[in-house]
Design goal:
Pfam families: ORC-CDC6-like (PF24389). InterPro entries: ORC-CDC6-like, P-loop_NTPase. The strands form 4 sheets. Strands 2-3-4-1-7 form a 5-stranded parallel beta sheet. The chain is elongated. The chain folds into 3 domains: 316 residues, no CATH class; 162 residues, no CATH class; 133 residues, no CATH class. It has 638 residues and is of the alpha/beta class.
Length: 638
């Protein structure tokens, strides 16, 4: 992401990409998925921006594990059966490489050579740390190796010999400098190839030992040298490859083949966004990919006879939550940690943010029914809505529901009222005859469970928003409380920033208005749901999610891909084990709950409707007929 977009990114200061492993470990709260990631298996970690992919991979590095102070830390350290090697995707390097090899017949070999050096640098850094001195932040050292200066010299010499290079000085520090020089040499080679004909290019390549490398071979050269010098044999090494969707397609292709078969000492932990283009190499993660030696090509051959099998060849971890309850346990643990880090003791997130009006009644059947009895808050809200909403009054008549009579022993009516509660909340809040009151309703999205839903249990969103909320805390005696109006203000700011970010992402025009980037598409979907749920006739099963039509054009599908990977829309898989999305056609999605306050939507899934219907029957109006909660805080105010 370019630096000029940083101001739009939601809480980019909490991006683990910019933190070293020790800094990541200081605040790390492990989700349940972390133990699965730590297993001795190839693993794909899939999630949108900010979902914690980079954090999880960085926590598998030795410096992070050694400095991690948590109740699960010791057990995790004992169960780790590999040395983690973090391999970031260098977007700048990728861009430079693709530019350097454009039009060169041997472009793939040049890219592999550059990434071989990139991976070798990461492996050697991991080896150096294992053999280095303890730093002051270590909680519990493990898996350490004592290495004399003589052993270090031997190790560097063996690595250099394997690369057919001569080291200037046999030391870790010198090798780092050498690797940088060799990388520059690769770029120089690419430049020289442009002056040669095709035959000369091939001849030049054949005479270059460095350019015949692939990244697994370079990693194994380092591991072989480590084993030779230390006498330790057969250890496993995990290449923690981050942001795979940003890597060159040739490297991606190689990695996917290696998931099926590779050196038994190597594990691959690969992170990527949920959506991958249907024609790309990543889309064939469930098939065996044969390298076609094409650079960013859509022509990939699939060997269907021997596809890798999930749970046999690899595991997959999903870091997003189609249903808001799924991530609440982790979100609550992370929130409690943030609260403690803010110096607040003996108070839960529920104490500080309060209870949400979207929360279900007490678990007891009798109490659940009595929550809608005459005089209860839910009953009063429904009566207020009935006063201003004729269609709701008609609905109550059809269902034979009298809000003035007890329903404690009426299972059917109690079930009906529970079903419509979330819709009633937003209709009553935003259909008020007093439009000024409607525009500034601060209580609807207040409360702990609503907070978890709005931040989508996304660690970056949660930490950023909760720190903001705690910055506006009000003390009553020894208690800390964040008022509902302050919660609304924080959600307003977060939503405005997120919308501004969506505006920077290219997207086709919708209707007759000029495109405002991806925001135009998201707004059309959001306004459709607002019309159906809040403005139109009352429907106890109103549209709240959408399914993409099978004939959706490629341009629209590409826009939806960006919306998924940025977290603006959330995929709702039909099966619990679906993780990687290779096409949006025929798939179901909902809007991110982060956008619910802006579009005045309930925090629930809702009935599915065709996206074609949304885009075909709804037009973006110049002005909204109904005021929105945060109209005064648009992206221009940031």
């Amino acid at each position: 992401m370019s630096q000029q977009l940083d101001k739009y990114l939601l809480y980019s200061s909490f991006n683990a990409r910019a933190l070293n492993p020790v800094e990541v470990a200081k605040t790390f709260i492990p989700p349940e998925e972390f133990l699965r990631l730590a297993n001795n298996s190839h693993t794909f970690v899939v999630g949108p921006r900010g979902s914690g992919k980079t954090t999880l991979l960085k926590m598998l590095q030795q410096p992070a594990l050694e400095s991690w102070n948590h109740e699960d830390a010791e057990t995790t350290r004992k169960n780790i059966g590999f040395t983690g090697v973090f391999v970031p995707t260098d977007v700048t390097l990728t861009s430079q490489l693709e530019s350097a090899v454009q039009g060169l017949a041997e472009g793939p070999s040049i890219i592999r050579a550059a990434y071989s050096i990139h991976v070798l640098r990461a492996v050697m850094s991991a080896i150096e740390y294992r053999c280095g001195r303890f730093n002051t932040e270590i909680i519990q050292p493990f898996n350490r190796i004592e290495m004399t200066q003589k052993m270090e010299h031997e190790l560097i010499e063996e690595v250099s010999y394997g690369l057919k290079r001569k080291p200037r000085t046999p030391s870790f520090a010198s090798l780092k400098t050498d690797l940088t020089a060799w990388l520059s040499e690769v770029f120089e080679f690419a430049g020289q190839q442009r002056l040669l004909g095709l035959e000369k290019q091939r001849e030049s390549l054949a005479n270059s030992g460095l350019l015949r490398l692939d990244f697994t071979r370079s990693a194994c050269i380092a591991i072989d040298a480590f084993e030779s010098v230390t006498g330790i044999q057969g250890e496993r090494w995990a290449l923690l490859c981050d942001e795979l969707e940003l890597a060159p397609s040739i490297i991606v292709n190689d990695l996917l083949r290696l998931v099926r078969s590779t050196d038994q000492r190597l594990l691959f932990k690969l992170s990527l966004s949920p959506y991958v283009a249907g024609e790309s190499e990543l889309s064939n993660v469930f098939g065996s990919v044969k390298n076609t030696n094409q650079l960013h090509t859509n022509k990939v051959t699939i060997e269907k006879s021997a596809p890798p099998q999930e749970h046999e060849d690899y595991d997959t971890i999903r870091l997003w939550y189609p249903n808001k309850q799924d991530g609440s346990r982790f979100a609550r643990r992370l929130a409690e940690s943030v609260i403690a880090n803010n110096g607040i003791q003996d108070q839960s997130v529920d104490d500080i943010l309060g209870r949400s009006v979207f929360d279900p009644p007490e678990t007891s059947h009798r109490r659940s029914a009595s929550a809608y009895a005459p005089g209860s808050p839910r009953n009063k809200r429904m009566k207020r809505l009935a006063e201003i909403d004729e269609s709701f009054r008609e609905y109550l008549l059809r269902k034979s529901i009298n809000l003035d009579s007890p329903i404690i022993d009426d299972d059917m009516r109690a079930k009906t009222l529970r079903k419509i509660n979330a819709i009633v909340i937003v209709r009553e809040a935003f259909r008020k005859q007093d439009s000024a009151r409607s525009r500034k309703n601060p209580t609807v999205y207040a409360g702990a469970s609503a907070f978890f839903a709005i931040c989508e249990s996304n660690p970056r969103f949660l930490i950023g928003m909760l720190n903001q909320l705690l910055g506006s805390k009000v003390k009553t005696g020894s208690l800390v409380r964040v008022e509902a109006s302050e919660q609304a203000a924080v959600y307003s700011s977060a939503t405005a920033r997120f919308r501004a970010y969506l505006r920077t992402i290219p997207s086709p025009s919708i209707g007759t208005r000029p495109s405002r980037g991806l925001l135009s598409l998201i707004e059309q979907i959001g306004k459709y749901f607002h019309q159906e749920i809040v403005v139109g006739e009352f429907d106890d099963d109103a549209d709240g999610s959408f399914k993409v039509d099978s004939n959706a054009d490629a341009e629209l599908c590409n826009a939806l891909q960006r919306a998924i990977n940025t977290g603006a829309i959330i995929w709702v898989p039909e099966k619990s084990d679906e993780t990687l999305l290779t096409t949006v056609r025929g798939k179901r999605f909902r809007m991110s709950y982060l956008l619910a306050p802006y579009f005045q939507l309930p925090l629930h899934l809702g009935r599915s409707v065709s996206l074609g219907r949304i885009l075909g029957l709804t037009k973006l109006n110049e002005t909204q007929s109904e005021p929105t909660l945060f109209d005064s805080l648009d992206e221009e105010s940031i």
